[in-house]
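ARCHIVE CARD
CATEGORY: sequence design from structure
SOURCE FIELD: tokenized fold
FIELD CONTENT:
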């Protein structure tokens, strides 16, 4: 079976099926099936694993109908943020980390065209932007600069 990335993330984080179902607005039976499919043990009741920034992130995003994600948590000057371990993180940074398995270089910013999008995979960091600039310059060198 195909397991949704956000469901898998919370399953790996050790959250109980019902919590995941509630957080992500999915069917608890589906979450249980996904747990079996991933070969993960049942979450032990009463033992709460320490929440990671990623856990907090998944609890604060809401998928949109057009394939992006909205932030339901706090914002600062329009930027989605969350507090973890006494530190503020931008949701963009965490989304970038989830999608790329590494921290962004410099700022991670939405690159999908939707303002304040928090869907993992919809952000780029400074390295991505530099690369894109280089590619654009290369194209401009070949095809000329568009008007
Ligand atoms: Zn997006």
């Amino acid at each position: 079976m195909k397991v949704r990335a956000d469901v898998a993330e919370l399953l790996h984080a050790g959250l109980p099926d019902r919590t995941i179902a509630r957080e992500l607005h999915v069917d608890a039976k589906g979450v249980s099936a996904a747990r079996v499919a991933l070969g993960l043990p049942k979450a032990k009741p009463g033992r709460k694993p320490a929440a990671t920034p990623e856990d907090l992130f998944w609890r604060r995003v809401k998928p949109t109908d057009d394939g992006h994600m909205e932030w339901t948590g706090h914002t600062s000057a329009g930027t989605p943020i969350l507090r973890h371990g006494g530190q503020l993180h931008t949701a963009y940074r965490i989304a970038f980390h989830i999608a790329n398995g590494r921290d962004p270089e410099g700022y991670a910013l939405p690159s999908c065209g939707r303002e304040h999008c928090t869907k993992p995979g919809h952000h780029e960091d400074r390295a991505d932007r530099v690369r894109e600039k280089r590619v654009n310059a290369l194209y401009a060198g070949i095809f000329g600069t568009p008007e």
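CARD ANNOTATION: Residues 109 and 127 are 12 Å apart (CA to CA). The chain has a mean pLDDT of 89.
SHELF: design records, drawer C
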